[in-house]
Specification:
It is a single chain. Helices cover 44% and strands 17% of the residues. By secondary structure, the protein is an alpha/beta fold. It folds into 2 domains: 183 residues, Rossmann fold (3-Layer(aba) Sandwich), CATH 3.40.50.2000; 181 residues, Rossmann fold, CATH 3.40.50.2000. The protein has a 7-stranded parallel β-sheet with strand order 3-2-1-4-5-6-7, sandwiched between helices. The protein has a 6-stranded parallel β-sheet with strand order 10-9-8-11-12-13, sandwiched between helices. α9 runs parallel beside α10. The relative contact order is 0.11.
Amino acid sequence: MKKVLFISNILSHIEAFHLPYLKWFKDNGYVVHIMTNANGKKVDYCDKLYDICIQRSPFNVKNFKALRLARKIINEEKYSIIHSHTPMGGVIGRLATKQIRREGAKVLYTAHGFHFYKGAPIRNWVLYYTMEKLLAKNTDCIITINEEDYQLAKKKFSKNTVVEKISGIGVNLEKFSALTEKEKLELKKQFGYENKFVLIYAAEFISRKNHRFIIRATKELADECSNFKIIFCGKGKLLEECKLYAKKLGVEKHIDFLGFRKDMPDLYRMSDVLISSSFQEGMAINVIEGFASGLPAIVSDIRGHNDVVINGENGFLFSNKNEQEFIKNILYMKSNFNEYKKMSQNALRDSQKYSIEVSLSEMNSIYVKFGV
């Protein structure tokens, strides 16, 4: 029986994004293995889980031990397909498969957003671009999820590997839905946001998500209108720092820090607009989830965002260096109900392009090319 191996440096990445793909392989008669930092957990649709300590930093010496162990397991298991995810999962997965690739195994890597991109720090290009350039020779297919990465990979890596693009990794749209105006008002009452124009940002509190931009902009936005609320959903190392920053600027009454939430579908339905000021995205899953809930988006004009947001049609794009532009877009949506509703309907329509069914179909076509 044929075997497939999925590799990632963190188990949560597999759990969050790849269970439908594991199921697809099981349904097609494959034995499914995973290699990641498992910490003793179990995963649906997985026949064997190898707990290997792959570290996020390429400079961590523990990765040498992880590479040796991964190479030993891969050579013993004789996989037909090895599909790597996350930057260091991709490094380990491709360095460990040289021998088995010569024996006919196919090695795929999905780039969920290259760390080298327009505007990225020079060090990212020196380290991650160089790394990817070398590893492309050990890869049968690099799969990208946004247009910028696709064009870059085609230009720089296609001499050594096949480059493909899919419409993101797919969102389970069945979890999300839009409400009528009456239903939305009722849900706002339940959450305590009656008569508020609610802006939602779901993101981990890390520097690249750029929460401080929104907190700063809130001060000026409050001078223009009062009946709005910004809700931040997520946790992270900068959460407490951002809370203190909001208090320092005197805007804490306009911002709610809700932490990690399991009721995101209801929070999206209750909200009016999805916002993001991120510096870097691969494919913005939160934007697509917002779209599927009928929310137009006001997001920074970066890779991943500008793949899904069409300026003036299903939302607005702004420079994450321009707070005035961000505020202007919010005020426009708040004061132009007919245009807002049109954008809301367009967002709902466009979410269908990024369903898990679409992504599975696209990945199926790629897998078939490589003998699945």
